[in-house]
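Here comes a specimen:
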Amino acid sequence: MATIGERMGQRTCKQCGKPFVPKEARHTLCSNCASKAKVGGNKPQNREPQQNSLQGRFASYLEQLDQTGYFDTDGHLREELIVDDADMVARILANAGITTSQLRRFFTMSRSLEQQLDNTKNFKAVAPGIAKLQPFAAAVIGREQSEYKRKNLGVLLDFIDVNAKRGRESEQAFRKGFLEHFESVIAYFTLYKPK
């Protein structure tokens, strides 16, 4: 029997600890936490190890790319940047709530820089434009009002920062590394965030 101030069938949410009345007997999260879990926010506890694993892989990817760049010892683009890492980065960005238009804006800016390079044949003139991707990524986060979303969008800044840094090292790094990798990330992203 419910006590005063308690409703019949009331439970405590496993995520936030607040009391709620479940719509179905199997529900363990309040409607607020359940909706966050659906859009990639606070995941239910049984999915956290997978999310942490993904976050760990993302951190390793950022560190390796920062230290070794896009190419193997023979000067070839590392295959994992086209398949495994691109897939993982796309999932991280999709789970963080990055929109297709936000990500495509950066890719379009990058392709525009490639066209500028084709026209001028002067990589040093284009390199500052690659660097500009970094403050533009910071601005995307800065415009967000929700602190929760700002924190999630940090992965976009991390992704753009390390790639813009590596992409402006040389024309080859930009064309054969940065753009090839980014194009693969976009391709996988459409799998996780279809229009």
Summary: The chain has two domains: 1-38, 47-192.
